[in-house]
């Protein structure tokens, strides 16, 4: 084994949405107005990386159907009597119809928006979903290692191994950009500057949640920001499904909780645990 020493009640709804990436359409003034208020940049992470506990299925109903019509038919047939299906699907009403996505690679994406964390997160107050991912797998691990460790400490868990799943995902689009401005000669972001540094406070999410609400209400699809848990790393908070596609399982991980901290991270293979670093 190789050590890593550094660091997600269904409701009834009327389904519908898009199978696969939606064709690009001209942006309306309402869609782009947020770019006059906040600095923005084009983002293309192919792939980005996400880590989530294995209790969340790698493939769910959103992956298994090919179209909104198929989803609606299957959901209507099974959801009333299938508790697991309702739990797996979550609250579809949380996702606008035009942002619903179906087909292979969309299950983990949709799950992030149909299942809420009532305690909130850096850019959500708990009333809407956010899909968090990172530019590198090391940053994705560092971020989730921190948060998993904080949860296990708060619940006073004894030593254990927490199973996690690493995903790759394609993230493309124009996003609000909290990252440092690029060096001279590099492609530059545009728009007003700067953001309140409090949005990146290590333990106080109030400013970040206020910014997340404002950007989401203004139509911004996501926020690129410096990792708070991995110096030099970059993260994305996708506020809408439209930034994302092709989210697929890449590896199984185990976070070793020693009763006080997560001291090791292992990548599991068919035969053994593999050193990450």
UniProtKB/TrEMBL annotation:
It holds the Pfam family RES. It comes from Paraburkholderia tagetis. Signal peptide: none annotated. Residues 1-33 are annotated as: Disordered. It comes from the Bacteria. Residues 112-250 form the RES domain. Residues 13-33 have a biased composition (Low complexity). This is RES family NAD+ phosphorylase. SMART domains: RES (SM00953).
């Amino acid at each position: 084994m190789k050590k890593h020493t550094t660091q997600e009640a269904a409701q009834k709804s009327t389904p519908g949405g898009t199978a696969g990436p939606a064709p690009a359409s001209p942006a309306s003034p309402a869609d782009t107005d947020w770019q006059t208020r906040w600095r923005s940049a084009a983002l293309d992470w192919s792939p980005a990386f996400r880590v989530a506990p294995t209790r969340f299925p790698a493939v769910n109903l959103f992956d298994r159907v090919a179209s909104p019509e198929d989803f609606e038919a299957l959901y209507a047939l099974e959801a009333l009597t299938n508790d697991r299906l309702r739990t797996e699907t979550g609250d579809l009403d949380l996702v606008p119809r035009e942002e619903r996505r179906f087909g292979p690679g969309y299950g983990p994406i949709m799950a992030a928006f149909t299942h809420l964390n009532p305690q909130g997160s850096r850019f959500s107050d708990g009333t809407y979903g956010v899909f968090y991912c990172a530019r590198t797998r090391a940053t994705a691990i560092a971020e989730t290692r921190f948060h998993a460790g904080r949860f296990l400490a708060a619940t006073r868990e004894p030593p254990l191994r927490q199973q996690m799943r690493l995903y790759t995902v394609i993230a493309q689009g124009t996003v609000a950009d909290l990252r440092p401005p690029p060096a001279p000669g590099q492609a530059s972001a545009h728009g007003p500057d700067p953001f309140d540094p409090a949005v990146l406070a290590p333990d106080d999410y109030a400013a970040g949640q206020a910014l997340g609400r404002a950007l989401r209400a203004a139509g911004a699809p996501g926020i690129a920001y410096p990792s708070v848990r991995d110096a030099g790393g970059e993260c994305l908070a996708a506020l809408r499904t439209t930034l994302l596609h092709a989210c697929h399982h890449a590896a199984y991980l185990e976070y070793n909780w020693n009763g006080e901290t997560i001291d090791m991270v292992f990548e599991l293979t068919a035969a053994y645990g593999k050193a990450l670093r």
